[in-house]
Hints:
Strand 12 and strand 13 form a beta hairpin. The protein has eight helices and 15 strands. By secondary structure, it is of the alpha+beta class.
Amino acid sequence: MTAEMIPDGERVVGVRFHPVGKIYHFDPGPYDLQVGDWVIVETPRGKQLGRVVSLGMPRSGRIEGPLRPVERPATNRDLAIRKYWERKEIEALVVARDHARQLGLAIKIVKVEISFDGKHISFLYHTEEKVDLEPLRERLAAIYRGRQVELRLIGPRDVAKIIGGMGACGLETRCCALFLTEFSPISIKMAKEQGLSLNPEDITGMCGRLRCCLIYEYEQYVRAKQELPKKGKAVMTPYGEGVVVEVLPLKEAALVRVGDQIHEVPKEQLQPLEELKALQQKAEQPCNNGENCTCGRRGGGNGENPG
């Protein structure tokens, strides 16, 4: 789905269908909607009940796909209907899991979503293997006649988000279930850049993938490291010449060995020795302008001071 620009002055509302879900944008039309209002909207998966969580354009100034209209504000009866479908979703989950087990399918059915109008039913599942789901699809289509049945593959992070529970770090609620609305790409490089242990137990989340939190301070580490001398670099400090033994990006400082002592030195007091010596050599070179010197150095091209 491509991002589209919205003309200036266009009214837009952001709607969520799940408490910590992605925000989708709609045209409020003639309705004066406020944050917290419930609305009925048309989506590719049928009519849905959602909640307004923002007013106006997103910061990017772009939205995904065409701007669909809000069909109408939701009523108390609509909220009761949504509760009814939530109970039916649990029943359908039990049914689907039972049939998957009967068929011997190596899949984990995690959640069922039924559209507000009941015409669309999605079975969210996860598997690490290639599985023929046609027998299961046929059974479910026979049970839920007249509805559009979808079997939707989700990733391990989505599974962890749906199930919830404690995080690998001990946080009472996992980040993905608490506030993450989208998943960012995570790489082992992020752990290396922050000097973290590369032991899988230390950097793997409950989903079995690299922890989402590895990205939280990654950019800050990268920026800070660019302004600090690298480990092993010779530097001048208030304590004398030394060698960097550890970089402390978040403190914007470095640990420097000077003689047999180690000092924590802020970046403002760190001078790369190569750079310092180059400046000293330049300062010691005689000026070629002789008596017309304006740079503060004296001397002729032959290096002798004028008499």
